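Mods, move this if it's the wrong board.
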Amino acid sequence: MNEEIRALEPKPLWNKFADLNDVPRPSKKEERVIEFMKNFGNKLGLETQVDEVGNVIIRKPATKGMEDRKAVVLQSHLDMVHQKNNDSDFDFDTQGIEMHVEGDWVKANGTTLGADNGLGVATMMAILESDTIEHPTLEALFTIDEETGMTGAMGLKPGILKGEILLNLDTEEDDEIGIGCAGGVDITAKRTYKEEEVLKGATAYKIVVKGLQGGHSGMDIIKGLGNANKLMNRLLHNGFEKYGMRIAFINGGGLRNAIPRESEAVVTVDKVQREEFLSETKELVSQIEQEYKTLEPKLKIEVTETSMPEKVMETGVQELLTRAVYSVHNGVYRMSPEMEGLVETSNNLARVSVEDGNIEIRCLTRSSVESSKTDLSNGIRAGLELAGFDVELSGAYPGWAPNTDSPILKVLDELYQKLNNKKAEVAACHAGLECGILGHNYPEMDMISFGPTIRGAHSPDERASISSAQKYWKFVLEVLKNIPKKAA
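Not the wrong board. Structure tokens:
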């Protein structure tokens, strides 16, 4: 099925991407891809190391004539976000990604594509395998678990890497050179509730929110896209406040770094209130769809009668839950006053689940300013604690402060303009690149980030531009040829 991908140019890049996508590689379950990468390095006869946390480092000597250049670390992450459409029959733990070409885009069949950051990984593999590409001494660093905690970057010890320059290949706009990124912190809120018997004469309904775009909770948060958990809560709050609707079950969203596309809930309504509940809910659905008709044209909200649940949530906790979810900030919190168009601080209400007496809410707060990240996460925490939740802040990681005086930035800036007859956009991004963490243990390393154009990352709409990959590949090769010489 992926043969048409292997025929694309540049073949070295797309063939390695196809090889990689044959290997299941969800975050937290990278054992197979670690083994795959270790075998790859060993078969090439290159020095290959797996560190204590599972990062793979493959070292390759400089090509002839490049021995006097500064050593370069090429860096990408092995794991990928696993998201699929509800109607996709696909097992991420056992199947490789099925791809196809659609115009200028490579897409997957109903799942995430893994171009984030598989194209970066494939680039490094192609360079390591080549005997014609000119380059200085290379250390290829393949990190694990970037998407759900950055534990690979966090676990990389000082002293393992010897390179002076780090090229992070995880940017998603081919006309952008990244010099900074956001840090983040996970917010997890939990509480229990008592289950009560369903009142006699009640009717049960299943509410489904679907068809939202979703996307990357950092890069796409500025778009103001619909959040399935927030939209569902509007329906639940209204039904409860006006008609005494009772909640039996909620399953909304998934990964912290993906804007939630879908949510479903099972509720009950007393037969006396049933007709008014349905009429007003239909009107509210119409209002929501009108609000989002431009941003979310495929949004669909369905309310259908369903089988009766055994239990529902106690009313006191239900009131606290719906008000708490309303209070959780979602989306952009503050724009950067220094860099135009850059989101400084945001939050993604990623997950809301209610089942069997347990409630869990998960968020990811991002910011390029540590104090602003603390401010927003403390505000969200306070609201949830007032609603009786136990709240934990965990997995915090630092941002990457921009350095406009970076020597490698000057090299890339000049090369991009030479190759494309226009200047690249030098920018920071509102995503959690590993550079911030790596820079903590390697403060003297000169770091830069760039990559091919990818759209819809972290969603089944993820796609990679073929023409952009060709442009990016040429840029990578020119960058490697023009790495500065070592200090005398």
